[in-house]
Amino acid sequence: MTSVPTTGALAGIRVLDISRILGGPYCGQILGDHGADVLKIEPPQGDDTRTWGPPFKDGVASYYMGLNRNKRVQHLDLSQPAGRERLLELLEHADVLVENFKTGTMERWGMGFDALSQRFPRLVWCRVSGFGADGPLGGLAGYDAAVQAMSGIMSVNGEAGGEPLRVGLPVVDMVTGLNAVIGILLALQERHRSGKGQFVEATLYDSGLSLLHPHAANWFMDERKPRRTGNAHPNIYPYDTFRTGTDPVFLAIGNDRQFATLCDIVGRGELAADARFATPGARSTHRVELKELLEQALAGFQAASLVDRLMAANVPAAPVLDMDAALNHPHTAHREMVVGIGPDYRGLGAPVKLSRTPASYRHAPLTPGTDFENME
């Protein structure tokens, strides 16, 4: 049996990940990337996401592979007494439990937090759920797209005058996973003082609502219903996609200096002095006229060279890249945001960089494991 890694900010922390699908497994992967020893418990048939494809490799979907590195996997049937007894044995050595069973399942098995905290007082228990255990929606199952719909995210996403749209990635699930990581780290930090674990909860519903800035802040101030604005920012302009002579570019102008520099570069310096566009508020109010004037000027430019000039002048601008171009961009490689383990695994790298204890990539998905690794 190999020894647990001695590098990484979470080296020495043992995590029992009995979650499945996305939010919980994403949380477990982040903890594993930063050195935690993560043992993932799956039912005999495996996590459901193994079937969420195509594409597949050796019968396992890419979806699963993107969420379950830096874990070792053991199969247990927790619906059976023998499986639950084995889970209790593993909990004797765990610092953190991550689970996202339907609320009440663990309690029905006699393994709720109140019961387990008596036996394992230092255990940090993290539950990822849809809506929490109580309240009007308490105990109901939650799903990313459904929470995008009911939290208001879809209402502000889409083209102006168009229908509400789901964000094109599982943003609620992923942010819930991030919030779970934050909660676990907060609880581990507090454990240094108290010597006690605690219950941590991250729900899809809360996480979805937490993403509503600046729309919620706007509503709290004037209670005006937000409207969909396509790629445009509701408060700032020009903060939108713009046509050029070739491909579209995205401009993210946040202050007067940036706007004046943009106008000079595209040969329309007089726009910065126009009363309609002289302040951030005026530019936001007169965005329709401003977009038309800017696109007239941008028609004479090639997108890539324009973006290079703007960025060199500290004007926020970007090309609109597809997936291939983004993942193959030289800066993606420089930031180590595509990583590999062995000959067969590639995935997205850890976005948080630590100078002394960087992330590491040790276990490809599907690495078998029957216990926590030995400590040295």
Q: For the CA atoms, what is the radius of gyration?
A: 24 Å
- CATH C-level name of the largest domain: Alpha Beta
Number of strands: 13
What ranges have pLDDT less than 50 throughout 5 or more consecutive residues?
none
Distance between the termini: 12 Å
CATH topology of the largest domain: Rossmann fold
Shape: elongated
Strand content range: 5-15%
Instruction: Give the averaged pLDDT, no decimals.
Output: 95
Proportion of residues in helical segments: 25-40%
- Can you tell me the CATH superfamily of the largest domain? Crotonobetainyl-coa:carnitine coa-transferase, domain 1
| Strands in their spatial order, largest beta sheet | 5-2-1-6-7-8
Structural class: alpha/beta
Total discrete domains: 2
**CATH arch. level architecture of the largest domain:** 3-Layer(aba) Sandwich
Note the main sheet. 6 strands, parallel
Order of helices and strands: EHEEEHEHEHHEHHEHHEEHHHHEHHEE
Number of helices: 15
